[in-house]
Amino acid sequence: MATSLLQPPTSTSPETALRLSQKASSFVNSQSSWLSSLPYPLSLLFSSESQEKWQVYENLFLACLRTGDNDTAHACLEELTARFGKANDRVVALTGLYREATAQDDQELAEVMKNYEDILKDDPTIFSIRKRRAALMRSVGHASEAITALTNLLDQSPTDAEAWAELGDLYSEQGSYDQAIYCLEEVVVVTPNAWNMHARLGEVIFLSAGRTEGGDQLKALSESMRRFCRSIELCDDYLRGYYGLKLATDRLLEVLSNTKKSQQSSADPVNGDLAPPSISSVKKLNEAATAKLGEIVRRSSSGERGWDGYSESELIAARELLERGTQKIER
Questions:
Q1: Dist. CA 209–CA 224, nearest whole Å
Q2: Residues ≥6 apart with Cβ < 8 Å to 279
Q3: For the whole model, what pTM was predicted?
Q4: Which 3 state secondary structure label does DSSP give 153?
Q5: Do 89 and 53 form a contact (C-beta atoms < 8 A)?
Q6: What is the largest CA-CA distance in the chain?
Q7: What is the pLDDT of residues 250-271, one digit of tens each?
Q8: Hey, is 315 helix, strand or coil?
Q9: CB atoms < 10 A from the CB of 180, how many?
Q10: Residue 310 in contact with residue 295, Cβ under 8 Å?
């Protein structure tokens, strides 16, 4: 429970979010004391608060919103507001998020959007509100406006990995894979050890390979494979990394078997192109990915200690991928 409370909300599974929200009310009540009646900063003289406490509050707030416990989410938001003030940028963004989540119709969402725009008229440098505005545009189906908003934001804050990742997802949804790849490459430049983003980049490159053929397809599949390899190098039990590696190597083996040797050995060092991998190397990677996926599915499904935390939907997808491979061998 303690570890989950401090994890970034985006890495929390639906099951964990539900468990957190179920315990949120008791946590909030346990934190209530006479100190809460004192004004800030006087309350700091008597408190022994830690930074982790407020991270817990924020994570519980987000977990409660995800599971529909709006009353407890509001209680968490009130605690954050009492501590940091209504004018705090983070609190303003969380307040907007609460209003988005509890909006009953399009009219209320339009009011939230207008509130964001009014805030940005007074202070356009509040990037948390600019991000929430772009996210709201995306959620109501205004993808082109969201892309414009994020592009303008990145002109002023070019090292914002979160904004680059959001923009990359938007481009990917639109089928603009070249632009999406560019955005995700910017993400891994800013956060080179983010294994999930290397895997995400590998996924988009893999999708883009479906639109190419010949040497371009071979190049894309090879690069996709390398990105998945980097992902599992950084996190050796990352399911999506192994899933993507198996997909990429399965397809790469098909392409390599139908490609002339002259094409397989071709590369353009001037443009930074790497030679395609050998069939033997791809086979070894495919076997390693298959074995690791099998181990993750087997040990996680049996409830073995230390192998929990995987998304059930990802485990199902991995199991189906392994079964498809088994069926091919049997045929």
A1: 9
A2: 253, 256, 257
A3: 0.83
A4: helix
A5: no
A6: 78
A7: 999 999 988 765 455 555 544 5
A8: helix
A9: 25
A10: no
